[in-house]
Amino acid sequence: KVLITGGLGQIGTGLAKIMRKRYGKDNVILSDIVKAPKRILDDGPFLYADILDLKNLQNIVVTNKIDWVVHFSALLSAIGEKNVPLALKINVDGLHNILELCKQYHLKLFVPSTIGAFGPDTPRNPTPDLTIQRPRTIYGVSKVHAELMGEYYHAASGLDFRSLRFPGIISADTQPGGGTTDYAVKIFHDALQTGVFNCYLRQDTRLPMMYLADCLRSIVEFMEIPSEQLPMRTYNVGAMSFTPEELVEEVRKYVPHLTTTYSPDGRQAIADSWPEVLDDSNARADWKWEPHYDLAATCKTVFEKLLPSMMSEQITDK
Ligand code: VAH
What percent of the residues of the chain are helix, what percent strand, and what percent coil, each to the nearest 5? Predict the structure, then answer.
């Protein structure tokens, strides 16, 4: 049975859907510390889980016979800089509880890492798996800590820890939670709702990105590899890299009248410290990682998802 923490964020509900198809609806428990909307409660089991409360977590693991944990709870890059003490509690203390829990009950643990785990001294194009990691956000520092602690517990006590360093994730119907790459999600809604897109990054800021379906599939494929077949515990996974102006050009194929302005804010410095292109050759070699969505396919899929619901909204609005 799988427990997903921070399950109501950008990735959790999509992962629950896929895993429930594969492992059975009642074998995947979504959890978070906020109330779930009815449509999510209708899809399968949901529990309150506070990653800062080890007793609460132990109770959930024992009473629900959990054997996998997918740990999404974290404050992302931009929001973490606005509340460092909270980011430390959630991203570090919370992680320590999860590591302790998984060690104690011998649970398989997936913790997402990120391009944010690299910093200004890291080679940016391409960024390999094994390289300098001196990130300049509390989010990045906490994710390097998660990678190092997970690999330590794996080496010292055999914990089946796994981590993938994700690019910015693009999703059609879930919102990211305060990241630096969120512009690449917001542009679709702005294009359809107002036709105006104000970008908080310079138009030439190249960042690695991935469509949600590739992200979800990478987690499931990676988690299903027998542990002894994995030469490493932490891998870069890539799919595409683009700049805001390249994304705007692709979006204009669907919304030709889209007007854009570029007013870089504090997130520009974060983006400038991150990789431009991820080298994911180890993931491709060790467990056959292969992305399916490039920029064109991503935009096509997102608009296919958003347009019908937009149309139905407009129809109901009339
Ligand atoms: C963020 N979307 O921007 C997250 C992610 C790759 C970046 O970790 O913080």
Answer: 45, 15, 35
pTM for the model: 0.96
152 catalytically annotated: no
Which residue's CA is the nearest one to ligand 1's atom 6? Answer: 168
Asked if residue 181 has its Cβ within 6 Å of ligand 1, the reply is: yes
Report pLDDT digits (tens) over 139-174. Answer: 999 999 999 999 999 999 999 999 999 999 999 999
Residue nearest to atom 3 of ligand 1 (CA): 179
Please tell me which residue in 139, 153, 200, 211 is annotated as part of the active site.
139
Task: Please give the single-letter amino acid code of residue 209.
Answer: M
Burial of 228 (0-12, 13-18, 19+ CB in 10 A): exposed
Digit-coded pLDDT (tens) for 68-88: 999 999 999 999 999 999 999
Task: Inform me whether the pLDDT recorded for 315 exceeds 80.
Answer: no
Phi and psi, residue 197, nearest 5°: -125, 115
Structure tokens at 96: 């320590």
Per-position DSSP letters for 230-292, written without gaps between them: -S-SEEE---EEE-HHHHHHHHTTT-TT-EEEE---THHHHHHTS-SSB--HHHHHHH-----
From 169, 170, 201, 215, mutation site for ligand 1 pocket: most ligand atoms within 8 A of C-beta: 169
